[in-house]
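Dear Dr. K.,

Following up on our conversation at the group meeting, I've run the structure prediction for GNAT family N-acetyltransferase from Streptomyces liliiviolaceus. I'm pasting the input sequence below exactly as I used it, so you can double-check it against your construct before we proceed with anything downstream. Let me know if the numbering doesn't match what you have in your notebook.
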Amino acid sequence: MRSTEADIRIHRPESLSESLRRDWHRAADASPDYANPFLSPEFAAGIGTHRGGARVAVLHERGEAVGFLPYERNSFGVGRAIGLGLSDCQALVHRPGVTWDTRELLRACGLSVFEFDHLVEEQNSFTRHVTGTFASPVVDLKVGDGSYAEWLRGAYPGLAKTTLKKERRLGRDLGELRFVFDERDPAMLRTLMGWKSAQYRRTSRMDRFARPWIVNAVEHLFQVREEHFTGILSVVYAGDRPVAAHFGPRSRTVFAAWFTAYDPELRYYSPGLIMHLRMAEAAGREGVRVLDLGRGDKEYKDWLKTRELRVGEGFVTRPHPVAAAHRLWRGPVRGLRNTVLAHPKLRDPADRLLKTAGALRTSGTGRLRRDAG
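The predicted structure tokens came back this morning:
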């Protein structure tokens, strides 16, 4: 397909017609690369409802909608993948064989630059604009025939003994352990966001839940119950007390790990690890085939992963002063961040420094602890 401006039409994601949503789903179903729930029209609509600059470029061929690029645009014409900073998977979702001219695509979108940081590896038309690729660990899920304990011993023999011992101790100390894969209580979602917000502040990370639009978008997505996107809140309880929680989206076959947090008073029971293991086992029983842990180096991801995908970050630009300025500003920042993250000798001291600062600010004790998820 040779794209022209007439082939591309721009829509608000939350205002897409049912027929266009069906076309988007059909394009996604044609390739396993697009099975991730972050690539669904439901996710785009959830972000778009709370972000005024959200749009979807729809590519047409012979009158049919064959490609979909959700993005956000600011008043200067700078574009970014929709939900950048939240979304762990980005792509122009298209039918097999569809290609596009990136500059014509940007012109039709009114963009001088388009930024991404979790682009799926398949996106050939964007390849030359990728400035770096990164591992995104995943877990291939297998359904066990027996109990959770039997599944855990078979899937993770190195973790099973210690994890089951901590679960038993948690049950003795606080009450019988109970796991709910799909908790529908919105109060529990607010508890999770409170825990996560405190974790961000404690570790001197940007507090996403201090931004009202993110809180509103997460609450919106929690209510979505569709085939290609369902917001799943999972909770580990000890007796009636919530211990750990996770919220993330699932499609028919992919479950995306997103926001995990736990009661900080119970950290010595390894609640974050218990949460991820319980989630993986339950998701497999629900028909999910892949648990996507998302880009980033974390010890628990190394323990759990069965393989890695590759995701790209970079900028697509067309000749424009704003594009040049944006690259000059964002490029060095990204480069410095990636250099630190790629080298343990730099990353670990930086991480400790952030955690020390957060601990001193919130408690005055300087006491550190490692948060999973």
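Two things stood out to me. Residues 321-342 form the longest helix (22 residues). The two ends are 42 Å apart (CA to CA).

Best regards,
J.T.
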